[in-house]
Amino acid sequence: MSDHVYNVLFLCTGNSARSILAEAILNREGQGRFRAYSAGSQPRGEVHPYALQLLRSANHDTSFARSKSWEEFAGPDAPVMDFVFTVCDNAASETCPVWPGQPMTAHWGVPDPAAAEGTEAEKHFAFSDAYRMLANRISIFVSLPLKSLDRLTLQGRLRDIGVDLPRAS
Hints:
This protein has helices spanning 18-29, 49-57, 89-93, 120-143, 151-161, and strands at residues 6-12, 34-40, 83-86, 104-107. By secondary structure, the chain is of the alpha/beta class. A four-stranded parallel sheet has the order 2-1-3-4.
């Protein structure tokens, strides 16, 4: 089944910034091999305007972007997920719904750019930095030889992606 499309759900609390960015990045970088979704445990009801601005400036289609509950993906009509990644520490510590199909899970925590304080430039930088971190992790993820890794090895690799590497000085 070389044409299998992997469904991936990115979770965050508010589903207004990080998980939305990750959904956009994977849908482009996955080149048809992956279908990304995002949701939140307590969705804010709107996508952060800086997230939309950043995605548009990076030539992402933003028509998909809406803040939604993870309950949409726990029902019987929801797509079956192959992977579920939390991108914020709050969502990682919450009790998630039981996902049909027992998807692989990992925590890829990224600081919340919506919580950034300071000048407008500093706030925009926080969004750019979150985008960069997510793009790096997603690039590693889409490069994994998914079909040739056993489940235990794959789980370890997914967890490793979420571990911050030391920064070069």
